[in-house]
Amino acid sequence: MPAERRYxxxxxxxxxxLRQIRLKRDQxxxxxxxxxxxxxxxxxxxxxxxxxxxxxxxxxxxxxxxLLEAIAVALDFNPEGGSRNFHFSTRESHxxxxxxxxxxxxxVRPRDGFFLRAESFFNVATEIERLDVIxxxxxxxxxxxxxxxxxxxLLMNRFGVEGLYLLDEPEAALxxxxxxxxxxxxxxxxxxGSQFVIATHSPILMAYPEATxxxxxxxxxxxxxxxxxxxxxxxxxxxLRPQRMLDVLFDRSDRREEEDD
Length: 261
What we know:
The chain is α/β, with parallel strands linked by helices. The chain contains 7 helices and 9 strands, in the order βαββαββααβαβββαα.
């Protein structure tokens, strides 16, 4: 179903695949243990998703990947990544957070779906070869390509129309130019009715127009505008005045060394 048809006459979202998640707070065993102790989870009530692209951003350890993984598992994706047809496991490391999420879905089911996480993409590529479905990924072994090339092959060949795609730090192996290519592909796929939820550090990717951006902070999760994100502000400041930024950073480092002495 094309994206422009995913709204009713009043303009309200009617058929997007993933509309909202809510934490079953009354069922959480204890908020002082992982993963419920993460601020992003401890303060979580509900999150609404954009019908095209929703971003999770925040510092390392803020819980964005943990929550994305829980959503993926709640949607019946393999915890290490892949489609719903992938059932391999190299290490049981995912939390039980998915058991405490209530998902609100649209009235139309996605025709396709995939969960991509950068840290276990090697395992997914191995499973693709084991299942002998490499033709769906461009016909060339993902192990015979660089990490970035393999991811682009996945995005260009495996992802299709009317799909629900969850991506965890897809920019990990991509150059800035390749990240621009990803933006183009995101636009093509969302125009064809696909929906994305993406955890990222990339100020390039999160510039996707009209996307919903959730910032994971010590105080919880808050929606922010693109130009208000730290990723945008720090990157912009560095590119505009790189030498000044370096001078400040190195001066701080020198002062710390003097204090340590």
